[in-house]
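[READ THE FOLD]
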Amino acid sequence: MAPCFYCRPPVPTHEYPKKLEDRKLPVWVGILMGLFVTSQVTLMIALLMEMARNNQQQKVVQKLQEEIKTLNQELQEKSCELEKKSSELQDKCMELQKKYEEVKQLRQENEALVSAKCPPNSGISLRLSMAPVLLTLSLQALLA
């Protein structure tokens, strides 16, 4: 069987005498196109404004992140410094505690020696407790 070709004949030009450029569009199509262009411009402006707002927000967020990073670093440094000072203070506290114990021991030894040399009612213990007061009064008299 031989192949069949179904070709359509070309459209006669006498049925479509006007070119497409010469045709006039209905008024409603023009109005719709105007509205479409207006809405498209409005959407583009809104999109540009939103992009500008997002850029500003990104700059603010980036600046805040850098500030947070700086503050965290400063906080870390201060924390290390505080830990070091705390350790030094702990050491000094231990030294003071040892010195306090030594002074306490020396005071007890001193009281034992005084009580061994002098009887309890002799008044020497009273004079020893008055020594700081008398020293203060004599210093004030010299300064006056």
Remarks:
- Residues 27-117 form the longest helix (91 residues).
- The radius of gyration is 52 Å.
